[in-house]
Design brief:
The protein has 18 helices and six strands. It is mainly α and 431 residues long. The structure holds s-citryldethia Coenzyme A. InterPro entries: Citrate_synth-like_lrg_a-sub, Citrate_synth-like_sm_a-sub, Citrate_synthase, Citrate_synthase_AS, Citrate_synthase_bac-typ, Citrate_synthase_sf, Citrate_synthase_typ-I.
Length: 431
């Protein structure tokens, strides 16, 4: 971080405190309050971190007002149209687009680590068949630290690299196995002659009774969906991974914590909730009823797939996803999909409503993704596992950045305490 030349003056009780201001390469300046408590005996207060930077980072930048998303400086639009997921993984992990040789070596490394330790199959069998695949993924990924002991020492750069490759390589296998387990079909092993997205589709949809040929249209759409979900600054699940890793927890435990956080319907669980909402709406004539509910302060209902903490413009990922939805559904011959029609009409009516316009609520990444995933054959319960699969590289990139920071401190927020001050114990006979 460059030495700050600017500062902010905070005056409390007639006493002034100078707080350094750091300038970013893009985005707002930050006021450095690290010494504030020691100097002024006060905390700052920011539940939900609406105005708080928890770290510095060089990986991803979002301009919420302009609807811009950059990964290591490259726009998500360019990466979604010109790159592919494993190349984006390399970019996020190592900071630069790879040479052809480096890309080939990286893809070969990932491809040759897609199998899961055979004994881990027993973990799947411990779940009920109706378990949510996210519950299974959280458990199995956490259990990886019980099998891959040779990549849990985070002080060893080589072990950090091994854990990185293992998690990126094995997440599709785990997600596919979680799906197969819940539908009672046999697990399908990965193949080394398939690309990352094709391998995942085959592990999900192939059955031993017949050959399975990956549709290149679906594989390209799957790969693009992975790319659109790869990383997104300090969102809730990434912040969970960073906080877990700040205590020195092993990478598998940290990623399992990220999966658990992503599951929430306000976060990665929104793609499942959004499609369920669109199905509940059912037909365009019911849209006004749901928009009225979303606007009603006394109704907890929200339009799922709408709104975002950072984007106050279109989520650029939603724009690409919407184009993909049109393309994939047309190619699959389901372009008259009634749910897609409801989604497009809902978007149009919401965006023309002052409530959403005034609050700058636009469709986010989750609004269209479920429509594509359902058309590809996935049940809604697999939408968030696919988000978790794709976001693993983002979590790991942020984890690597944090634990290689020599100034790393354990994350330990303070609080505004509103409870009882000290009082004497009352024996039960006197209560
Ligand atoms: C993801 O952070 C990330 O980067 C996340 C993510 C990633 O890639 O990691 O982008 C992925 O999580 C996308 C978001 C998926 N979630 C949903 O689609 C769920 C529906 N949306 C929300 O619940 C909400 O918009 C959030 C959680 C996404 C953002 O919430 P904020 O930033 O805390 O905003 P808020 O709840 O304070 O809302 C501001 C106002 C409120 O009204 P007022 O109290 O000011 O009157 O807008 C209203 C809210 O009631 N509002 C909505 C709404 N979202 C916000 N009203 C109706 N429908 C909605 N969807």
């Amino acid at each position: 971080m460059a030495d700050s030349t600017k500062s902010a003056t905070l005056t409390i009780g007639g006493k002034s405190y100078e707080l350094p201001i750091h300038a970013p390469t893009a985005g707002p300046d930050v006021i450095d309050i690290r010494k504030l408590y020691g100097q002024a005996d006060v905390f700052t207060y920011d539940p939900g971190f609406t105005s708080t930077a928890a770290c510095d980072s060089t990986i991803t930048f979002i301009d919420g007002e302009e609807g811009v998303l950059l990964h290591r400086g490259y726009s998500i639009g360019d990466l979604a149209s010109k790159s592919h997921y494993l190349e984006v993984c390399y970019l996020l992990l190592y900071g630069e687009l790879p040479s052809p040789k480096k890309l080939e070596d990286f893809e070969s490394l990932v491809t040759n680590h897609t199998m899961l330790h055979e004994q881990m199959i027993n973990f799947f069998r411990g779940f009920r068949r109706d378990a949510h695949p996210m519950a299974i993924m959280t458990g199995v990924v956490g259990a990886m630290s019980a099998f891959y002991h040779d990549s849990t020492d985070i002080s060893d750069p080589h072990q950090r690299e091994v854990a990185t490759i293992r998690l990126i390589a094995k997440m599709p296998t785990i997600a596919a196995m979680a799906y197969k387990y819940t539908i009672g079909q046999p697990f399908v092993y990965p193949r080394n002659d398939l690309d990352y997205a094709s391998n995942f589709l085959r592990m999900c949809f192939a059955v031993p009774a017949e050959d399975y040929v990956v549709d290149p249209i679906l594989s390209r759409a799957m790969d693009r969906i992975f790319t659109l979900h790869a990383d997104h600054e300090q969102n809730a699940s990434t912040s969970t991974v960073r906080l877990a890793s700040s205590s020195g927890a092993n990478p598998f435990a940290c990623i399992a914590a990220g999966i658990a956080c992503l599951w929430g319907p306000a976060h990665g669980g929104a793609n499942q909730a959004c499609l369920e909402m669109l199905k509940e709406i059912g037909t365009p004539d019911r849209i006004p009823e749901f928009i009225a509910r979303a606007k009603d302060k006394n109704d907890p209902f929200r339009l799922m797939g709408f709104g975002h903490r950072v984007y106050k413009n279109f989520d650029p990922r939603a724009t690409v996803m919407k184009e993909s939805a049109d393309e994939v559904l047309e190619l699959l011959g389901v372009d008259n999909n009634p749910i897609l029609q409801v989604a497009k009409e809902l978007e149009k009516e919401a965006l023309s409503d002052p409530y959403f316009a005034d609050k700058k609520l636009f469709p986010n990444v989750d609004f269209y993704s479920g429509i594509i995933l359902e058309a590809m054959g996935f049940p809604t319960s697999m939408f968030t596992p696919i988000f978790a699969l794709a976001r693993t590289v983002g979590w790991i990139s942020q984890w690597k950045e944090q634990i290689s920071d020599p100034q790393l401190k354990i994350g330990r927020p303070r609080q505004l305490y509103l409870g009882e001050t000290q009082r004497d114990y009352v024996d039960i006979e006197n209560r």
